[in-house]
Design goal:
Distance between the termini: 109 Å
Order of helices and strands: HEHHHEEH
Structural class: mainly alpha
CATH topology of one domain: 50s Ribosomal Protein L17, Chain: A
Number of helices: 5
Number of strands: 3
CATH class of one domain: Alpha Beta
Strand content: 5-15%
CATH superfamily of one domain: Ribosomal protein L17
CATH architecture of one domain: Alpha-Beta Complex
Strand order of the largest sheet: 1-3-2
Shape: extended
Length: 187
């Protein structure tokens, strides 16, 4: 009997279930929003929130614990550098589960699990400034380059077209000459 044993088995053995949870938690922290079954979402929610709590602590031991559970180093870095600072003023409740649909194949109830909040407005402003600067530089470069290219491109395109038409005219003549030579009987 399974009296007072918590957690869902999800039809998997222990090692498979643990690997599944690790990959799902890594995906949630990486993409910040994934769609999975409601049962899996409910199971990984405490794990995701625990990882964010480790990220908020920010010490070396917390980083090592998080790295032992999360699959990739990039996600650990993202957790400690960008995700955890977003939730510094929040005491828990970092995720949201929204039921979406029934899966076509087996009728399983699907849900989206996502992190709350967005990137800091300061980070967005910096990104907008850098993209705006890049766009201005690219626009200036495009404005200068096409003027030069148009002057150079027009004569080249006329020259390029002329030989093609001459070659096209020459080829049929050569073919007709060959045919006429072949038609003459040898003596």
């Amino acid at each position: 009997m399974r009296h007072r044993v918590g957690g869902r088995q999800l039809g998997r053995n222990t090692s498979h279930r643990r690997a599944l949870f690790r990959t799902l938690v890594t995906s949630v922290l990486d993409k910040e929003k994934i769609e999975t079954t409601v049962e899996k979402a409910k199971e990984i929610r405490p794990m995701v929130e625990k990882m964010i709590t480790f990220g908020k602590r920010g010490d070396l031991n917390s980083r090592r614990i998080a790295a032992s559970f999360i699959s990739t180093r990039d996600v650990v870095k993202k957790l400690f550098d960008t995700i955890a600072p977003r939730f510094k003023d929040r005491n828990g409740g970092y995720t949201r589960i929204i039921r979406t649909r029934r899966r076509v194949g087996d009728g399983a109830e699907m849900a989206v699990i996502e992190l709350l909040g967005e990137a800091k407005p300061e980070e967005k402003k910096e990104e907008k400034k850098t993209t705006a600067k890049k766009a201005k530089v690219e626009a200036k470069a495009k404005a200068e380059k096409p003027a030069k290219k148009e002057k150079e491109a027009k004569p080249k395109s006329k020259e390029a077209k002329a030989p093609k038409t001459e070659k096209a005219k020459e080829k049929p003549k050569e073919k007709t000459k060959k045919k006429t030579k072949e038609k003459e009987p040898p003596q």
